Amino acid sequence: MIKKNVAGLWLLFMAFTAFGGFYLYYKLSGDAEGIEAGKIVGGMLLALSVISFIKIRPWK
After folding, report:
1. For 40-51, how does the pLDDT look when each residue is reduced to its tens digit (9 = 90+)?
2. 35: which residues sit within 8 A by CB, 6+ positions away?
């Protein structure tokens, strides 16, 4: 399954990277807008990753 779902794993990695980057920006600058943007971008990428996992291996 892991070899077949490289796109899902890549999207999951991108979601954590996006959220982590915006969280780091929030901590360093103190700007609360950064964490909100990170939640939105990370959430969208996480949703795409979940959809990819479901599409590759649907529930039985």
Report:
1. 888 888 888 888
2. 22, 23, 26
What string of H, E and C letters represents the secondary structure of 3-58? Answer: CCCHHHHHHHHHHHHHHHHHHHHHHHHCCHHHHHHHHHHHHHHHHHHHHHHHHHCC
The model carries a pTM of 0.65
Range of the domain at 38: 6-56
Please tell me what DSSP assigns to residue 59.
-
In a domain, 1, yes or no: no
Region of residue 21 (left: phi > 0; alpha: psi -120 to 50; beta: else): alpha
Q: Is the CB of residue 1 less than 8 Å from the CB of residue 56?
A: yes
